[in-house]
Amino acid sequence: MTRMRPGLAAALLRTVAAAIAIAGVVDPAVKTAGAGRARVAVVTAPQASPAAGRVRAQLVAALGASHELVPHVTSDSAAAILIGDRYPDESIAADLPVSTVTIAANPQRRVRIVTLSAPREVPAGTAIHVDAELEGGGGTGASADFTVSIGGLEVGRISHRVAGERERWRAALDVVPVGEPPWIVRAAVTQPEGPGSAGMDVAHTVVGLRREPLAVQFYEARPGWAATFVRRALESDARFRVESISVSSRGVATRTPGSRELSALAGVRQVSDTRLTPQLDSLEVIIVGGLDRLSATEVRALDRFMRERGGAVVLVADARVDAGPARELMPPRATERLLERPATLAMTAGAAPFEASELLLFPPPAGIEGEVIAAAADGSPVVLSLPRGRGRLFISGAMDAWRYRMSETRGFDRFWQAAVAAFALGAPPPIDVRISPPALRPLERGLISVRLRSDPGAAVSASVDGEPIRLWPESEAGLYRGRFTARKTSGRMSIEVTSAGYRPYSVRRAVIVQEGVEEPVRKDVPLSLLAASHRGIDVTPERLDELERFVRATITAPEAGAVTRPLRSIWWLVPFGACLSAEWWIRRRRGHR
Questions:
Q1: 513 to each of 206, 492, 560, how far by Cα in Å?
Q2: What pTM did the predictor assign?
Q3: Does residue 245 share a domain with residue 227?
Q4: In-domain check, residue 489
Q5: 300 — alpha (psi -120 to 50), left (phi > 0) or beta?
Q6: DSSP letter string over 534-554?
Q7: Which CB contacts under 8 angstroms, 24+ apart, belong to 548-553?
């Protein structure tokens, strides 16, 4: 065995010592990845009953192993759970999922409107979709009537039998606007068995007239009949501005002049990396066909369009997707069913019925906001609407419904026109302006909320009838609030909001001032309203198991990355000193200094 010469050994020791010294000066960082735990804030409201402490202890015992639970909401919280009996005074970021545990001393017997929603604007000739969440009780068999009126004329009514002391249900109506815009939509829920007005609750919202067409783009990764006839249904409706790109082969595509490239969003993972291009930012719905030909870049672009833009992506399936990037968008475990003859699908939410014989069946949605729009005869979902970040994902598994578009019901065109219009109207605008209350009495004080979506850091200004309104920034980035006073007499006021960011925007809203506008009967805002507006659920202490399942299903653990600097360890002095000492000893033995 050949022994190493003393000179070579000394040189090697000097090299190792020098390498340790240089690495210590450079101080390299090593990144490691692993599975982390999602941080969930479990907050007990001030002055809550003693039962709140017991509820928090149960949640900590049930979720402590899978989630990191903290007592306060922080900037890196993935979700929050509030325990109490009323709406908190402090503001909460709009994009933070919040669930609530309502603890009340006595059950709420009066029926009330928890939330009331309607589009901010609707195109001409379009019905207004009013969606309300109601809560109340009064005993088994008690009835409640939900009515909607415009201009003093009742335009819709739904009756509901309350099954218990405390129940929550939803009421949805499509009502025809009456009179000139903007329209004051008055919703009221009454409980005839209640004494006098104690069983009545009233809420208002204002809906304006939209003059711009709804911006929709089709993207067909390969030509297909399913997406083609959906496009023709929208092109026949004057409310839509339809653009399209159809890829027939590699490098060959047919496109309309105003179509947008999905590749503008490729390769971007964080909102702060880059802004959406003005072309894609102006879109509200993207309808996709040829799902099996989608690339990973296009799937990533569609996902970002939903999460950051808040737009809707509609997937029109004409075959089962077993592999490929599109599987990231599709629900798992989809099965295919072929019928001998076409069958009319069971529709929900008042959608127009249509027929199909080739069905793609999906598992029921697990999330609280997932909605089954159409189902097969056995109840298996065929058409789904799912939340995806700020936007929505709409999946149609009626693969050959286009074949029966001329059937007796003729619901194919009506279904797609109504569904896409609803998604387009629900997409957030670049500047979201909300007035509270939506209709004011003369000299009443109003609150204006301005949320900037495209450029939260842009300068923003507001005025009412030419008089400036002072806007104050809130804790949430891009959110501003201000107050103004209504005019002395009934009429309309004009509010204009302008942002001067990388892409200037200007929005004008009409404010109705009218004598005799009713105030909501309720005095305390229920805590359940917070969950309804923040993509969560509200439960009682007896239903904590539902909340636990919801948190486990929707609040997933993010990828946790750690950065370490190994050369900062003091133990590196041991090999450094050993190398120098050994090199000095070898030199001394050879007679060198």
A1: 12, 6, 53
A2: 0.69
A3: yes
A4: yes
A5: alpha
A6: TT--EE-GGGHHHHHHHHHHH
A7: 548/59, 548/62, 548/63, 550/99, 550/368, 551/40, 551/63, 551/67, 551/79, 551/81, 551/99, 552/63, 552/66, 553/366, 553/367
CA distance 231 to 225: 10
Nearest alpha-carbon partner for 18 in 587, 591, 579, 590? 579
Per-run averaged pLDDT (10 residues), the chain, 593 residues: 66 82 78 68 75 85 84 78 77 76 63 83 88 71 83 88 73 88 89 53 87 92 93 93 89 84 54 51 90 90 86 93 88 89 85 91 76 90 89 93 84 92 89 85 89 81 91 82 89 88 81 75 63 79 84 67 72 83 79 64
Same domain? For 226 and 291 the reply is yes
Single-letter residue type at 393: L
End-to-end CA, the chain: 30
Does 461 share its domain with 348? no
Burial class of residue 197, CB neighbours in 10 A (0-12, 13-18, 19+) = exposed
Exposure of 296 in the CB half-sphere (CA atoms within 13 A): 3
Q: Residue 181 sits in which domain range?
A: 112-209
Query: Which residues does 2 contact at the CB level (< 8 Å), separation at least 6?
Result: none
**Using CA atoms, how far apart are residues 512 and 439, in angstroms rounded to an integer?**
5
pLDDT of residue 240: 94
Residues 6+ apart with CB under 8 A from 195: none
The Cα 361–Cα 380 span in angstroms is 6
How far apart, in whole angstroms, are the C-alpha atoms of residue 462 and residue 260? 32
156 part of a folded domain = yes
- The answer to whether residues 286 and 334 belong to one domain is yes
Number of domains in the chain: 5
Please indicate, yes or no, if residue 520 is contained in any of the structural domains: no
Residues 384 and 247 in one domain: yes
Q: Closest Cα to residue 265, out of 253, 274, 256, 255? A: 274
Domain check: are 66 and 118 in the same one? no
Same domain, residue pair 502 and 575: no
What is the token pair recorded at 508?
A: 């004008």
Q: Which of 513, 547, 578 is the last residue of a domain?
A: 513
Q: How far apart are CA 227 and CA 318, in angstroms?
A: 8
Looking up residue 199, the CATH number of its domain turns out to be 2.60.40.10
Same domain, 66 and 129: no
CA-wise closest residue to 39 among 76, 94, 92: 76
Q: Following DSSP, what letter does each residue of 400-417 receive, concatenated?
A: TGGGGTTSSS-HHHHHHH
Q: How far apart are CA 531 and CA 435, in angstroms?
A: 21
